[in-house]
């Protein structure tokens, strides 16, 4: 269901809806889109509230309207908005406040309801500030900005001109932003807005959800929005290398009878848990974990993990286990982590209280620094290339995630196989066209192939709706999507992305008919000519596009004086020069407010599909500017 429809149904603002989603994620420990009694029990236990199993089941049943035994997001929203189940709602809210070390803040976003209380985790504020201080301390551009005081509100002030956020995006995904596009020095409000717009659109392009976050929210330092955005950016960077391409030794985590395909379907969180348990096995310790909350609170797993993965001469030993006080033990364990440069994200109290988000970040950082997985030997990794994500796949996946699709899409084909993500995308392109009562959602039955037939039914319904939207889907059916047939799945996803982009154009132009490629080309050429530019395009396969001249000229035509042509290389011959032009063009497009997902390589290689989205997004921005 579209966000706007949820807001109308439950009488909440988009800002509040985003907060509810974040709170839902705190209970949904495995990120599969529903809260089980086990997850609810783990959260309550981590804040010192032991609840018997029958009471947990009663709590879930009170909110579980469809009686499937779990709580889905919409049911969670209903609980928050109506508060009909006051005792249950109170238990949830109390658990959240204890779990996150919460400080009550009045809503400062213009989208917030007056008097709304937002949850701001002191632990996250401190963790993110220290992460920034540690990872960006050597950046000469930030020498006058760092360190950030981790125990004050300085973190929320540090983002108000967008400069630091741009640096954080590039830290997580290097070269996303061409730093020539960033405004520097003492900035007025207008230039701050530009930097923040660049940062937000660039964060979207790497898969962060920035809907309902605007430059004004960040200038005001709206705490829950700043923390939410920072966490998304940091998370992308932490998970970027948990794959076979960057760590081929991951195949060592295979369990008996498991295929490599099955292993790589696991989420990064699940792979990290598998990695911890593998290292525990290698260390000869029988302890295993299934979460980053209640299973790690006594520091035993962390103590053995650090000893197992650290260099022999690092001095990480088991002496923390001699300490009976859990807080003291956690502190000594973190002293060991500091010996290998990995004391990040958590304090001793975060470990003892089982703060899942920060503990997951702590483990992800350990993995990235010291994976301790033997590389493949001759013949073992010959077929790993087939698991490498293509540029096109990554672009599509980032686009989906930026829209707030649930659950988060980590693997394009396997995460689309139940049809739910595609149906959400269709609902975004053509709101209210999905009849959700026809759709089956998890939990899937454990018998009968794990709900295979229901998943295929969902996929068939998605294809049916695609046909009704006049997509070209000849020879594609639900089985193809469910089985992850790559070229057929990509064909559907591309048409969804195209339709989404052109729908925005149609809304802005107030046209009764869909916008065509020809209209986009004509508008761009007319705009270029009216601004006195000599560049033009014939179509989206025009080889002249490869130097990005038409793109930067169009940006300058839309926002006069925005392009610094000293940064543009005239008549580039080498691919390197063309890439630098394209990189600058993409960043400048985002800076003036065009939500571009394409990559510089798409312009250099003149990939017509992605090229179309660049010009269409610029057309939308240009038409908005004239309204």
Task: Please give a structural write-up.
By secondary structure, the chain is mainly α. 53% of the residues lie in helices and 2% in strands. The protein is built from 28 helices and four strands. It has helices spanning 3-10, 14-27, 37-46, 53-63, 73-82, 86-100, 122-135, 154-157, 163-172, 189-205, 215-219, 223-239, 260-263, 268-282, 300-309, 326-339, 348-352, 356-369, 391-402, 420-429, 448-468, 478-482, 486-509, 517-530, 549-558, 575-591, 600-604, 608-625, and strands at 34-35, 71-72, 102-106, 117-121. Strands 1-2 form a two-stranded antiparallel ribbon. The protein has a two-stranded antiparallel ribbon with strand order 3-4. Helix 2 (14-27) crosses helix 5 (73-82) and helix 14 packs across helix 15. It is globular, with a radius of gyration of 25 Å. The two termini are 30 Å apart.
Essential attributes:
53% helix, two-stranded antiparallel ribbon, 28 helices, 627 residues, mainly alpha
Helix content percent band: 40-55%
Number of helices: 28
- Main sheet attributes: strand count, strand direction, barrel closure: 2 strands, antiparallel
Give the terminus-to-terminus CA distance. Answer: 30 Å
| Global geometry | globular
